[in-house]
Design a protein that fits this description.
Chain A: One of its GO terms (cellular component) is 3-isopropylmalate dehydratase complex. The complex is a heterodimer of chains A (201) and B (468). Chain A has 201 residues and is of the alpha/beta class. Chain A is built from eight helices and seven strands. In chain A, β5 and β6 form a beta hairpin. Classes of the chains: A alpha/beta (201), B alpha/beta (468). Bound molecules: iron/sulfur cluster (SF4).
Chain lengths: 201, 468
Amino acid sequence: MDKFTKLTGIAAPMPLVNIDTDMIIPKQFLKTIKRSGLGKNLFDEMRFTQDGEEIAEFVLNQPAYRQAEIIVAGDNFGCGSSREHAPWALLDFGIRCVISTSFADIFFNNCFKNGILPIVMPQEVVDVLMDDARKGANARMTVDLENQTVTTSDGQSFAFEVDAFRKHCLLNGLDDIGLTLEKVSAIDTFEKTAAQARPWV
Amino acid sequence: MAGKTLYDKIWDAHVVDTQDDGTCLLYIDRHLVHEVTSPQAFEGLRMTGRKVRAPEKTIAVPDHNVPTTPGREDPKNMTEDSAIQVAALDKNAKDFGINYYPVSDIRQGIVHIVGPEQGWTLPGMTVVCGDSHTATHGAFGALAHGIGTSEVEHVLATQTLIQKKSKNMKVEITGKLRPGVTAKDITLSVIGATGTAGGTGYVIEYCGEAIRDLSMEGRMTVCNMAIEGGARAGLIAPDEVTFDYVKGRPHAPKGAQWEAALTWWKTLKSDDDAHWDKVVTLKGEDIAPVVTWGTSPEDVLPITGVVPAAGDFKGGKVEAAQRSLDYMGLKPGTPLSEIKIDTVFIGSCTNGRIEDLRAAAAILKGKKIAPGMRAMVVPGSGLVRAQAEEEGLAEIFKEAGFEWRLAGCSMCLAMNPDQLSPGERCAATSNRNFEGRQGRGGRTHLMSPAMAAAAAVTGHLTDVRDLI
Ligand code: SF4
């Protein structure tokens, strides 16, 4: 997993609420057995016509936002399925950070596993960031994980909360499985005790 | 000190390690695996030379992307991508020594139907799967939830998950349901009341008389859609109904172990003085047969209602509602019962069990589907299918004009060839009505199996109470 420390980039405004995982990556692209290459189909049905033509109005098709690395979104981003193809597609497109008032639980988890930082902000702050994002390519937002701040293109800075353990993993690009395997003796002990208490499991 | 909820009890029994910040390592009793979200996880194991820690607790079945038409045992009859995913699962199950039900096995079916059916899912367990509807297993009083592929790999390698505890939410359905109202109407009505983010950050326990009165099939329907309400998991305390269902299943405990298990299972309920962070109460008698009108599961209304206008909503939902109306091709003010449909899909892990098929067949008996209607039944497992054939339900469906399919997810997510065309409108018993969910441009109305059967007969959304 790539580290996430500080990012200055273009933010795309997506004010729609309940952007679900079927919108982020429609199921016809779940047929791969790989993690890579999904970026070209990110938001496929919103981004392209049935014939594969770009839909000009869609935000990521606009010249200003083609290089976006941040999305500022409406409530409940990432609801729906557990498909990790959603963060894989975002990452492959180049998105490293999503900011919203709320996220669906599994999507939120999946982001951290892939080096994407999901940030929860109150509505008033999301409104300010959304306006900043609407300014286009010259307005670059800065997300500083170390200091837990988001700074708009005109210098307004907002603090955000992030789970300490997840922050640590993201800052250092740590692999969860490796960390857990360091605790293998605790797992062994648990299994022995549980096998006594609940032998039918 | 306040008592504990059922969730607290199951959680406490599975904590392997707690860090200072409250992050826990949680032990996983059952890990269910399917062909779409697992290949990358197995690839990860191979790349790092890791093994599956507890293959005996890992169960795999292909379901999401398999054809539901005859002859599918032969990969030549699958699309290329399905064949690749199914072959990968075949190989991974064999190489890593995990329990497996291939498409040729009569026990194959939707992972959330197979687990309970085979007795893999038991009260008090932690159950995970790379699929959000893992919440289904909560009906047994198990802590069950969906995970992403990285977590699938984590569970395969360590049999644990890194988790932070959710908050406790109680959803109580008091009193009795009225005739024609089912578990699906309960679960949709709850989402209608709380919204799709209403459960975010919570594990829901469903309780109350109307829940207690449900069969295990009905309880699975309710818990299945906890995820549509945003919750991590939904669960129901186990009781005699649960124990009767579990007893004698292939992987359920037997003899002395059964007795020991039962003793513990009976302690699995929330204490009277348990603390709830959020409580929602609905009266059973207030719940009507419902349908969805929009493209979010929270867009729920009684079938007696009319299509709303975007202006009826507030905030960001106004734009979303307008988008839904445009996508669904609906005019505000139209009575829901006048919406014509052209496709009916009965199946999925929400409503693909025997009781669901019985409820639909009861409406269809001696009737025909409306002219021009495409209707299909996709049983949740090979065993459900066989039972329905034995009970004569298959004949009722076929005589009414339904296609009688093999088990799988099918048109619930439309990864296989079972899809809607743009503009087609479907009465579906599945759980998601998102844009494009059942095929690009396809329009989905969610409802109970009885309501879907009623719509198949009349050709439009219909109050099932008019037909019983
Ligand atoms: S039936 Fe639908 S919801 Fe259930 S597991 Fe399959 S795709 Fe997911």
